[in-house]
């Protein structure tokens, strides 16, 4: 993967912002929005998508994310989360757990563990690690981490360290022994795609984004989708948008241009040609007939 070239639009966060003399772990639960900036940092970060859906911008990639997705962000990787849309009903809630890289090595020396911290978090290794918590095991750990961090009860620093180690062991299991079994069979993974597309058909959607969301290569995703639906992914999205367009033509007084925009088409001429091709009549003729 290519590393992001730093520029004025990428902000740098350092350890002084989050850590104090008492504790070197910071945990929060944040409602992501469009006011956040692309940023990088000199500490390690583990993110958990707790609720909602949206997109994760990592260096030069854009990844669709859903509840249960987990990311490890090494030192120096630029990233930011965005909800699926600007609509108030579109939420994206993310747990963040951050800590200094050198502290992890110190903790690992004190507590027996199976993972290679040097490999997993080496800045030169790769830009991120991605997992999916299909059984909600990691979500429980993040909830406990957040609770301990907020309450500051006696011994909370020790418990925070233990929870971080527990989380890393869990991710190690995802990667090495049970991760493949925890993901549902490929055909069933398409259920998440159908749900996501039905809710977000008006947004720009690509085959590559959907394939990444369900951990399949684009070519495998294409073959599986065509076999399952007898349509290509593009055809499926177009048909869904046309179905919604027909519904709006029948039940609302919206202009045809507004309807095109509502279902995801900014090019009015393309929308008119596609509608005529799919429905056999123009949008206006369809509305008049109904």
Written account of the structure:
This protein is 46% helix and 19% strand. Strands 2, 4, 5, 6, 7, 8 and 9 form a 7-stranded antiparallel sheet that branches. Strands 1-3 form a two-stranded parallel ribbon. The chain folds into 2 domains: 11-182, Sandwich (Jelly Rolls), CATH 2.60.120; 186-289, Homeodomain-like (Arc Repressor Mutant, subunit A). 28% of the residues are buried. The chain has 12 helices and 9 strands. The chain has helices at 101-110, 117-120, 137-151, 156-176, 179-182, 186-200, 207-213, 218-229, 233-251, 256-262, 268-279, 283-289; strands spanning 11-13, 26-31, 39-41, 44-58, 61-66, 69-73, 79-83, 92-99, 129-132. A hairpin with a 2-residue loop joins β4 and β5 (61-66). With 290 residues, it is an alpha+beta fold. Pfam families: AraC_binding, HTH_18. InterPro entries: AraC-bd, Homeodomain-like_sf, HTH-like, HTH_AraC, HTH_AraC-typ_CS, RmlC-like_jellyroll, Tscrpt_reg_AraC-type_HTH. One of its GO terms (molecular function) is DNA-binding transcription factor activity. Residues 191-289 form the HTH araC/xylS-type domain. Keywords: DNA-binding, Transcription, Transcription regulation.
Layout of helices and strands:
Elements: E1 11-13, E2 26-31, E3 39-41, E4 44-58, E5 61-66, E6 69-73, E7 79-83, E8 92-99, H1 101-110, H2 117-120, E9 129-132, H3 137-151, H4 156-176, H5 179-182, H6 186-200, H7 207-213, H8 218-229, H9 233-251, H10 256-262, H11 268-279, H12 283-289
Parallel strand pairs: 1-3
Antiparallel strand pairs: 2-8, 4-5, 4-6, 4-7, 4-8, 6-9
Helix pairs in contact: 3-4, 7-8, 9-12
